[in-house]
């Protein structure tokens, strides 16, 4: 995915997440939905945030490990792995 396409995708996903959050806020304020409905929306938000993180992580890994270099150093691999570990915790 091209850098600009990835950026647009991330922004669109974040806007969708904002919309879901606003929807949950409205559900709670108006007391119109059940806990099941609210929790389902929260699960959707969590999945969306995770997907955004994966897109950013993939782009980061490609930049660090592929980039313009022919050889990747152990330090660069370690840096990417540390980022992955932080994300999945």
Key attributes of the depicted protein:
89 residues, 3 helices, 0% strand
List the SSEs and their pairings.
Layout (H helix, E strand, L loop, with lengths): L2 H28 L4 H31 L8 H15 L1
Helix pairs in contact: 1-2, 2-3
Beta-strand content bin? under 5%
Query: Average pLDDT, to the nearest integer?
Result: 87
User: Uncertain spans, ≥5 residues at pLDDT below 50?
Assistant: none
Total E-strand runs: 0
| N-to-C CA distance | 26 Å
Instruction: Supply the number of helical segments.
Output: 3
Evaluate the radius of gyration.
18 Å
Derived structural class: mainly alpha
What assembly state would you assign to the polypeptide chains in this entry? single chain
Fraction in helix: over 70%
- Give the H and E element order: HHH
How would you characterize the largest beta sheet? none
Give the overall shape, derived from the CA principal axes: elongated
What is this structure, in a nutshell?
With 89 residues, the protein is an all-alpha fold. The protein has three helices and no strands.
Give an account of the 3D structure.
The chain is an all-alpha fold and 89 residues long. The protein is built from three helices and no strands. Helix 1 packs antiparallel against helix 2 (35-65) and helix 2 runs antiparallel to helix 3 (74-88). The longest helix is centred in the middle third of the chain and has 31 residues, at 35-65. The protein starts with a helix and ends with a helix. The mean pLDDT is 87.
């Amino acid at each position: 995915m091209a850098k600009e396409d990835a950026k647009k995708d991330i922004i669109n996903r974040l806007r969708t997440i904002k919309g879901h959050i606003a929807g949950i806020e409205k559900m709670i304020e108006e007391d119109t939905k059940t806990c099941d409905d609210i929790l389902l929306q929260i699960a959707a938000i969590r999945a969306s945030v995770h997907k955004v993180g994966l897109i950013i992580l993939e782009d980061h890994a490609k930049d660090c490990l592929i980039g313009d270099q022919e050889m990747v150093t152990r330090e660069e691999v370690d840096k990417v792995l540390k980022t992955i570990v932080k994300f999945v915790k």
